[in-house]
Specification:
Radius of gyration: 31 Å
Domain ABC3 transporter permease C-terminal: 273-404
Oligomer: single chain
Distance between the termini: 35 Å
Subcellular location: Cell membrane
Structural class: alpha+beta
Domain MacB-like periplasmic core: 23-240
InterPro entries: ABC3_permease_C, Lipoprotein-release_system, MacB_PCD
Keywords: Cell membrane, Membrane, Transmembrane, Transmembrane helix
Length: 410
């Protein structure tokens, strides 16, 4: 215990004997931790934004479907949405909102322009509670339950060259091969975070969609949102048990959108490669700083060994110095990153021009944001701190083998 106290005292005093050298080592660790946290926070922030845009603002975390709907997404594979199913959904406390929908594809036309679109028939009030759809109105007015109006994404509106007050004609297939033809005035233009929603989405009232597709009292899906995403798997099992194993099935968003999951996982792996490159650069900087410190203090170390200090104690003193410098740099690096990540989380930066278009082309909203996850901050802090300590092992081994005359002669 006495030796440990002596080692810590010597290490602390040695640090401030050469403030420039100590500052370089602390700064190397500080910027390493800061850059690692910012890189990971921004990367995960983009993923969270994408999930929020596609899940919270459209699909819901869970969906109740006819079992056949997964294999063949047609109106024929709909379910009966009645008071019994509604009661089973609302009986689970973790479910915050739900919305029955009819989703089907049709050809949308306006004058000489036409395009295949996704028509979503939903209850205006329930849809707004589920996804906050009313906040997405960019131009015009939000539709009502008994109206015969539609709302569409701004990208689709631009393609069809329509604005509020214009008319769009639909032509498609309805329930049991019936013909689905309808003409609807445009009530509003919507703006979504996900480019694919802006370019393809059309909303009409649920009752109007049931008449259009000849599917009275039916729905293709019931989208469900939860209090917490962490409870998704548990609520999925509970809801499936409530509605019965043979009637309908409950799927989570990961099962509904495997392409989104794969896209995020693929991008996350490429992000890890960039992070490993950053770690490599950081490692060279820290290792070079340590070697420089050993070389500059070679005569000092030789003198200490010559007057009787054991190589082992000298090596431990250097290790304590590295731990102190690493701890200071890691703590200040993580503290410095917190206001930056908090600012990006609360005030996302929207990308314009070529950078924004590049994000949209790969299906991401052109926005730079960040997550403020304490676990992410602590993990990156520990990675860099441990890396710094591991890199100090080689200089310590050199000190263990150092002969007194080696440094004095130099």
């Amino acid at each position: 215990m006495q030796n440990l106290k002596l080692i810590i005292t010597m290490a602390w005093r040695n640090l401030w004997r050469n403030r420039v050298r100590t500052s370089i080592m602390i700064a190397a660790t500080l910027f390493a931790v800061f850059l690692a946290i910012i890189m990971r926070s921004v990367q995960e922030g983009v993923y969270e934004r994408q999930i929020q845009n596609m899940v919270s603002y459209y699909s819901g975390f869970l969906q109740v479907q006819n079992p056949a709907f997964s294999d063949e997404k047609t109106i024929d594979n709909s379910l009966i949405f009645d008071s019994d199913l509604e009661q089973k959904i609302t009986s689970i406390p973790e479910i915050t909102s739900y919305s029955p929908r009819i989703e089907s594809f049709a050809l949308a036309s306006s004058e000489e322009v036409s395009k295949g679109v996704m028509i979503t028939g939903s209850d205006p009030q329930l849809e707004d509670e589920l996804t906050g759809l009313k906040k997405r109105v960019l131009e015009g007015k939000y539709f009502t339950a008994d109206s015969e109006e539609l709302m569409l994404g701004k990208g689709l509106a631009k393609y069809l060259k329509v604005s509020p007050g214009d008319t769009v004609v639909f032509y498609g297939a309805g329930y049991h091969a019936s013909t689905a033809v309808g003409k609807y005035p445009v009530a509003a233009i919507l703006e979504f975070g996900a480019p694919q929603l802006n370019d393809n989405m059309v909303y009409i009232p649920l009752k109007a969609s049931q008449r259009l597709f000849s599917a009275q009292e039916m729905a293709t899906t019931v989208a469900v949102n939860l209090k917490s995403r962490k409870d998704m798997k548990e609520v999925q099992s509970e809801l499936q048990l409530a509605i019965g194993e043979t009637d309908n099935e409950v799927k989570n968003w990961e099962e509904l959108m495997p392409e989104l999951v794969n896209s995020i996982e693929g991008d996350r792996e490429s992000g890890k490669i960039m992070l490993y490159v950053l770690y490599m650069i950081i490692g060279f900087v820290i290792y070079g700083t340590l070697l420089m410190m050993i070389q500059e203090r070679k005569r000092e170390f030789s003198m200490l060994v010559a007057i009787g200090m054991k190589n082992k104690m000298l090596s431990l003193t250097l290790m304590v110095e590295c731990i102190i410098m690493t701890a200071i740099g890691a703590i200040f690096g993580s503290l410095l990153s917190i206001p930056i990540t908090s600012w990006l989380h609360n005030s996302p930066v929207k990308l314009e021009g070529g950078a924004g278009k590049a994000y949209e082309q790969v299906g991401f909203e052109p926005v730079i944001t960040a997550v403020t996850d304490p676990a992410l901050i602590s993990s990156q802090t520990w990675v860099v701190a441990i890396m710094s300590i591991v890199l100090s092992i080689y200089p310590m081994i050199k000190l263990l083998k150092m002969e007194p005359l080696e440094g004095l002669r130099g």
